[in-house]
Amino acid sequence: xxxxxxxxxxxxxxxxxxxxxxxxxxxxxxxxxxxxxxxxxxxxxxxxxxxxxxxxxxxxxxxxxxxxxxxxxxxxxxxxxxxxxxxxxxxxxxxxxxxxxxxxxxxxxxxxxxxxxxxxxxxxxxxxxxxxxxxxxxxxxxxxxxxxxxxxxxxxxxxxxxxxxxxxxxxxxxxxxxxxxxxxxxxxxxxxxxxxxxxxxxxxxxxxxxxxxxxxxxxxxxxxxxxxxxxxxxxxxxxxxxxxxxxxxxxxxxxxxxxxxxxxxxxxxxxxxxxxxxxxxxxxxxxxxxxxxxxxxxxxxxxxxx
Amino acid sequence: xxxxxxxxxxxxxxxxxxxxxxxxxxxxxxxxxxxxxxxxxxxxxxxxxxxxxxxxxxxxxxxxxxxxxxxxxxxxxxxxxxxxxxxxxxxxxxxxxxxxxxxxxxxxxxxxxxxxxxxxxxxxxxxxxxxxxxxxxxxxxxxxxxxxxxxxxxxxxxxxxxxxxxxxxxxxxxxxxxxxxxxxxxxxxxxxxxxxxxxxxxxxxxxxxxxxxxxxxxxxxxxxxxxxxxxxxxxxxxxxxxxxxxxxxxxxxxxxxxxxxxxxxxxxxxxxxxxxxxxxxxxxxxxxxxxxxxxxxxxxxxxxxxxxxxxxxxxxxxxxxxxxxxxxxxxxxxxxxxxxxxxxxxxxxxxxxxxxxxxxxxxxxxxxxx
Lengths: 306, 370
Description:
The structure holds two protein chains of two kinds.
Chain A (H helix, E strand, L loop, with lengths): L5 E10 L2 E11 L4 E6 L5 H8 L7 E6 L8 H7 E4 L11 H11 L4 H14 L15 H13 L5 E5 L7 H16 L3 E5 L3 H4 L4 E6 L2 E6 L1 H8 L4 E6 L5 H8 L4 E7 L2 E6 L2 H11 L3 E6 L3 H8 L5
Parallel strand pairs in A: 3-7, 3-8, 5-6, 6-7
Antiparallel strand pairs in A: 1-2, 1-4, 8-9, 10-12, 10-13, 11-12
Chain B lengths: L4 H16 L2 H8 L1 H12 L7 E7 L4 H12 L3 E5 L3 H9 L5 E5 L3 H6 L7 E4 L4 H23 L21 H23 L1 H8 L1 H6 L5 H29 L9 H26 L2 H18 L12 H9 L1 H15 L3 H26 L5
Parallel strand pairs in B: 1-2, 1-3
Antiparallel strand pairs in B: 3-4
Helix pairs in contact in B: 1-11, 3-8, 3-11, 4-7, 8-11, 8-12, 8-13, 8-15, 9-12, 11-12, 11-16, 12-13, 12-15, 12-16, 15-16
């Protein structure tokens, strides 16, 4: 097996007294689509900044595309592409001017740049002219052009920090098709998201909570390991008062009980308790067994609910 | 880790696109200096003419009339006869007159008797701006009046002849315009750059920039260059207005002037960049610019208050800012026609300041993300 595209061991980032990233270790294989999930402030963006060469870690081992901080930040920056959550492109500049700017900063050979730009605009099937101002593009198109900008220097790994925030569902779907295309070309895609349907499409997912990596597996693997118990959907037959709800949330029959739209997802606490309570609960709910969703995993692990 | 011209040029080009598409910046840079120089150039006039002079003549003699005529025939005073000395004082108090001339009854008699003739001039001391020039005029007129009253009898044993070099008519605009240029261009330059880096921190584009191999010095240089070009253009406009509208002379070399302007502008643009790098927020950068751009160039450049008269600590502070050197340089080049052999200390001082600002902003730029 080839060397990992990304590898960290006991990575720590401290800001003064605050530990933003607390001893996380993982590795990502080349060509993998790796998702990073966690609440805001869990340390996802900080970790990505370290991996992009933007932030020197306080301690620990980091290797990205075969380069580490001992080679200098710029060695890492040359090998990776980055698309941040806050900013995509300069709105008052045209698409061509934005891409020219990045090409200039990366000192791309003019011939190579022209070829690569054509290639990438084809990849994202960009229809508007190169002279279109970015402010006139739709949110989804902006993100796609921004992805092209991050791929301009043909990096081995591309880091996408919430790339689909504020994009329409159709736009998100198109963007993920691009992610799969890019991964198909052998590039490693490292992506953070708040959308569970997007996380579902990742090869593996790392879950972060309070600066720690609390779980790491494929979506299916996570569901299995986080929910070893049988999981049911509870559809209430009548409306429930809030005191009833909090009683159910603490009920001894459940290891997990969370609202899911108008219904509820619950995991059985144990076979005996479940057998004892199931008939009683059947009077209030229509109960059917389901596979847990990634959202259930997220709620249980990241938000730490029972 | 060498400086890359290509990366700096990419930053400069991008910045130039921003400027070109931002009418506010363009207006700020090109229109504001013109408006300010025209408004201030006309408003600030230290030449004082037609000062109202309340005259109480209790002597009504040939000598007293000659004295009054001398005042009246100068361009500086407009004579306004009053009935008594008390009336004259009242006029000054009520600001109907700036100055009063009071001639006592025995003025001519005393003169003829060979004693000293005595008349009194009162100047409104509450209006500081007029005191200096008016008392100068009074002195000059007194000498003239003495001679006219005494006729040929009195030949002074010696004469002190004063000639004003470089500005023979003491045209105050020639003096004000260079000072104004300093104030206007200093504020403009700081404002132009103060927001550019802070803006990129605020909208997150700085993170993207830093994710490429670009170095702080390349960003700083790339950002300064287009604004320097813009500020030089503004300076050229100001120069043309100064020469054509206000008739300010130009005695020196154009290249000395151009080089001096460039150094001065770069110094202040770099100061703006430093503010932007440190503040990282546009509102804070704005306030810092006001404070560090406006105050020193107004108060410590020697434009309004002579630096030589300041207490020592203020003199030291004034020596840090490029404003004072630029005032000296402008007066030197425009009025005195001196060149770099005399002005080199000013050039060196401005170059040191500019370099210091650029080095500090590069160092402070850091790579730390918030």
